[in-house]
Amino acid sequence: MGIPGTEPANSKANGGTRGNGGTDITGTSATGTTEVAIERRIVATLRPVPGGMSPGDLIRAIKNDRGCTPPMIQASSDHLLVSRVIGKVNGRLVAGGGVA
Q: Based on the number of CB atoms within 10 Å of its own CB, is 92 exposed (0-12), middle (13-18) or buried (19 or more)?
């Protein structure tokens, strides 16, 4: 625990959900709810496209949303890839894990 009030925003002590297998994107993160909203938007954009999208096309598709910058989208998509919420098949991002 350490000193009260010094735990990271998403630590287990504060009820964070990251690190529990990686499939839950409903928790908060160190950057707040904006990152979670971007992750939800990424999954919602990829889900209806069975052939997936290139990373550049995904960034272009959602960068105009409020609070979305290309580096934030890239970081969120990288987090989703590592947590296997989305996957990469033939260089394209797909919803549902795919094959690394």
A: middle
